[in-house]
Amino acid sequence: MSTRRRRPVKKINKNMKKKLAVLFSLVLLALVGLVARITYINATSGSKYRKQVLSQAQQKYENQTLPAKRGDIYDRNGNILATSNKVYNVILDCLEVNKDEDSVEPTIKALVEVLGLDEDEMRKLLDDDSTKSSQYQIVKKQISMDDKKAFESYENPGDDSELTAAQKKERSKITGVWFEEDYLRSYPFNETACDTVGFTLSRDVADIGLEGYYNATLTGVDGRQYGYINNNSDVEQTIIEPTDGKSIETSLDLGLQQIVEKYVNTFEEKMGAKNVGVIIEDPKTGEIMAMDGGDRYDLNNPRDFSNVYSENEIAAMSDEETVDALNGMWSNFCVTDAYEPGSVVKPIVMSSALEMGAISETDNFVCDGGQSFGAEGATTFIKCAVWPDAHGTETLADVIANSCNDGMMQIAAKMGKDNFLKTQSTFNFGTRTGIDLPNEGSGVITAAAFQVVCFVIGILADETLSDEEIDAGMAGKLLSEFLFYIFQVGFVVGADTHTMIQEINAMCSVINGGYYYQPHLVTRIKDSSGGIVKTISPILMKQTISEKISADIRSYMAASVDHGTSRTSKVQGYSSGGKPGTAEKLPRGNGKYLVSFIGFAPVDDPALVIYVVVDEPNVEDQASSTYAQYIAQGILSEALPYLNVQPDEAEDGEVPTTELWDIFKGISDSATGSAADGQKEAISDENVPSPPEDDSEDEDTEDNNDMQSDGLTNEEAGLE
User: Fold this and answer.
1) CA distances (Å), origin 252, targets 378, 509, 668
2) What was the pLDDT predicted at 456?
């Protein structure tokens, strides 16, 4: 039997152990040294190397803004007044193009042939040291979806294309061009309601009209797309979706607005004036149904003022003058400008006198042609409009119908100066109404009126007041004697300054039963899917007069239309009331006048109030309110049927034809616009309260109201 020999076991001798220990020590020492070196570098040059790393990483970092869509603006019937359409900015990645020399020419060719870009400019971007390594150069802004698709079709013609192989190969080299989403604000009806709608200066900047007032509501929140992407694009991106802006639904009626502008445009073309303003308001809610406040301009091109100024005038303007001209064109005369209103305030003054008990509905007044005022030795005679003739004995209806200055001055005297001044605050004269439009004026009642007092005192008393006396508010005995005179005559005839929105809103309360509503334009706010976010219900601020006195004033103003100074405004088939006004502008004696008319229809249940102001009509004799009445008559002749207001004075079931002013004849037959022909299907609004006499319920008016006001809702006032 043989035995197997075992191999001897090798053992690590002492010498080898020493070598291993030395090797381990060296490795450990190297690791310690490396850590120490990294620590040192980080402490001394970390920022430098960090920037280098991030710079390299940035080339693979995708960071893109996802724009939010601005909310739309609608009229009361769902017609879009302002919207945002998706457009694209063309971005050129110069670094990507320059990576391959064969890509330069095909890319430039595509940009020039398809998008119409300048070849020299493209070459400069790719060659210039300041841009050739850039990955983000906007080469064209806001192209359409069609243009984008055209470029993409050019870049990728498809297999069925008739292009040659060489052409397909050339186009395959196009690179470094991509499209960034954006939105372009557009206004489908161009200049219609331009002063009211307003426009955006950029996607999220606006300070004109509804666009400006509701900018925060209309503007959304941009999203973001970002992440580090490898060549295979296998890294998941992070996307924060944009939040679109909310839309607003207004009380404006596009068809009614087009009717208004048609008559204003015709007047401006055939006759002309420094300015013409028109407001139509629903007296039962304070909702503005139409507003035309000055120079017309295209909302899609708001910096073009060639409709207002000639080429020579524009060329001669300095930069400062250009800015002033644009701001003037963009201003809304209906809410910003204050002026002396003239006799349109007389029904307001009379209603206050009746409410205070200073006069009664059975009182009579004798007009002998005027009134004398002033202290001994400093009297003045204020003439009635018919002087040297006189109206004789008048009822209250006669005073309004005749627009009698003498009778109104007697009424103001019975009120007394303290109560007379209360009239102004009762109807919010001298105070902003709170309408949801920017840059509202307040008019002048106190400070400026005092300056006028002092000026008139100086003239009538043949003396000059010092600046110290005026600033101190002290004018001695003459001031106390003439203060009532100037406020009495000035407010009655129109010396204080009001805005159009103040005047029409005050008149609405006079004829609607005495209920003063805050005027407003926006009725609903909706989210991007059309859901109602907020309902903005009418706000009842106060009751100015009783319903009985309101009915009396309506009858007095009806007398003015039937046989008085408002006869020119008559629309056949409809009962209506009205009051004209004529105010001589400062400085007196220059022959410049502002003429106006305010009216309503029908008399018993007014569906609308219209206010027309013509500032310096282009005629030699400007002092005639008939120009404003002509405009109102023309508008009402179409507006009332358009709003389905039934004629209440039809003869044997037929409505007589209204005889319009010569320059307006025939224009009622012209096209008003698409909105007036078939787009009037009203949007149901259960949240808008009914007139005070209606018992229908209002839904959640307090919580949903967007107005800043100390007023009451109809519900809170016990009117529901």
Assistant:
1) 52, 20, 21
2) 38
Please state whether beta strands 273-281 and 80-92 pair in parallel, antiparallel, or not at all (unpaired): unpaired
Q: Are 593 and 552 in contact (CB under 8 A)?
A: no
Rounded distance between C-alpha atoms, residue 100 and residue 174, angstroms: 10
Question: What is the spatial distance between Cα 720 and Cα 540, in angstroms, rounded to a whole number?
Answer: 12
pTM listed for this prediction? 0.78
Choice among 78-82, 211-215, 378-382 with the minimum mean pLDDT: 378-382
Sign of the C-alpha dihedral, residues 12, 13, 15, 17? Answer: positive
Q: Is 363 left (phi over 0), alpha (psi -120 to 50) or beta?
A: beta
Stretch among 28-32, 248-252, 514-518, 678-682 having the lowest mean pLDDT: 678-682
Question: Per DSSP, which regions of 547-647 are E strands?
Answer: 577-584, 593-601, 608-617
Phi, psi (rounded to 5 degrees) for 405: -65, -40
Delimit the domains of the chain by residue range: 64-249
Compute the distance between CA of residue 66 and CA of residue 415 in angstroms, rounded to an integer: 65
Evaluate whether 610 touches 521 at the Cβ level (below 8 Å): no
Of the candidates 473, 436, 475, which has an alpha carbon nearest to the alpha carbon of residue 335?
436
Question: In this structure, which CATH number among 3.40.1280.10, 3.30.450.20, 3.90.1310.10, 3.20.20.70 belongs to the domain 64-249?
Answer: 3.90.1310.10
Q: What is the pLDDT of residue 416?
A: 79
Q: Does 48 have pLDDT greater than 90?
A: no
Going through 107-234 in order, the beta strands assigned E by DSSP cover 137-143, 177-186, 223-228
Q: Which residue has the tokens 């009396």?
A: 552
Confidence at residue 445, expressed as pLDDT on a 0 to 100 scale: 61
SS3 for 347-415 is HHHHHHHHHHCCCCCCCCEEECCEEEECCCCCCEEEECCCCCCCCEEECHHHHHHHCCHHHHHHHHHHH
Could you tell me if 499 and 332 are in contact, meaning their C-beta atoms sit under 8 angstroms apart? no
